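S1.2 Input.
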Amino acid sequence: MQSDALRELRAVMARAGVAAYVVPSGDDHMSEYIADRDKRRAFLSGFNGDAGTAVITQQMAAMWTDSRFFLQATKQLSAEWTLMREREPQTPSIEAWLNQNIPENSLVGIDPALVPKRTATRMSSGLAEKKNKLQFLRENLVDQVWKNPPPYSSAPAKVHALKYAGVPFEEKLAEVRGKMAAEGAATFVVSALAEVAWLFNIRGADVPCSPFLRSYAAITPDSAILFADKDKVPADVLTHFGDKVKVQPYDSVVEFVAGEAADKKVWLDQLSCNILLYNAVPEVKLIDKPSPIHGMKSLKNNAELDGIKEAQLRDAAAFVQLLHWLDDVAHDTKAQTGMTEMTIVDKLEEFRAQQEGYAGPSFVTIAGTGANGAIIHNEPTHEKCAPVDFGAMLLFDAGGQYLCGTTDTTRTIHFGTPSAFEKECWTRVLKGHIALASAVFPAGTASPALDAFARQSLWQVGLNYAHGTGHGVGAYLGVHEGPQGISTSTFYEPMQKFQTCTIEPGFYKEGAFGIRLENEVVTVEHKSGFLCFEVLTFVPFDVKLLDMSLITAEERKWLNEYHASCLAKVAPRLQCGDLEWLRQHTQPL
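S1.3 Output.
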């Protein structure tokens, strides 16, 4: 049965003269996490995974997403949708699929504010093979059928204190201007929300789980402009800016950029800049290069690192409280009545709220009991969640936003008696985690070379996992940050000193269980002069799942030292029963 939203959208498409319409996941800033107001793809399809592109024709509806969301999409998409599994050999590109399913010489509609230059270029080229054309429609067609969408947040921006930021925004502007001069740019436009927040030392509340203000920035040799809703820039932020930053309306950015490009060179980053803004600059006036801020903010200064370490310890205390509480419930059948995945999510929030400077989760908490753990990004809600199986594994992946830093931690525990296969898989994941956390490597080592450390033990028995091994983490910014990361892909740049990253190998047995073990680390200099990782996360592992026959003496030493650090660093933040639980669960093997 065709949904009302699809039926109405197809009628709007017909009036607009397009044979197909593409609905990306992102917002005007190519953000990973977006405001509820921008969740058009989720509204249209019911699939609310963080990544996906919907394509609708008059007869068909298809959803492209990556392997992290295959199981979730299978559950959430209705029968009128076809799931297109990205990067699998049999899956065509969006352009190839469209060329097969619409007549030649057709128009394919898309909102130019929601697509980056690289994607628009690729789609246009692919569609041209069948004489089809990408048509930019500034009036979003989904908005025409979305009745009563949620409004954007009205929460004001806030100054990010210098004790956390470490460097005044004036110094950051000076460094950016130096890089502009080296490139011959008269104007640099900042599109990524995290970059605007970092550059000006401000934070906002326009995006769930990320402290961002919906905004752009433009930098010239003698001026800086923040394009934002003026009602959300209060007096203290204006005082913070002084005469160094002017505030202009959010919607005036395209007109401003076009005016600058009339007689000046303008620097845009096509990865974070939408095609609407990109097309405002003539090619002869364009400097198309990655944003310098992307790399600048990834190199953490001392104040940021101190803040991140403090955030990790606050979060670890909350995690230990949760694990202790879960342990008690596992031994109390009466307390288990009515307990769901969301009960656990809510309980962690309760414990985190007791921590100083807690500002909310850094992403929608992932909690999977039993077979739900195999859904890599299982995000329960109060309306749709599973009862906790106290005879099965539980995968719990949660991050926190604190005024001093951002966290991301995953643990997999077992309430009952794990099978030999579950123990083997968990132990091999842990071995991979230890191998990468212990790695010493020269500067410039490619991401796939590091990634192999984490997979080697799984590979030895023909197992693997279908996601990256690590991602950068911001300093009270986004929980996912580049350009650093660890993956089989060469997309990420090599790790540099003072960049943070996660280490999160896993294994997922569809229909049975999921395992992921995640800590955050920072890259530091090894005594050899090479690089290595310093662990930042201090939450004990569930050694009930450990197969002692599989670990080496060195791995046991690493685990014992790690648990000793957990006890030493987190114990001063706990009381009574929580403290005793931590002591019991950090005993040496």
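S1.4 Remarks. Residues 302-330 form the longest helix (29 residues).
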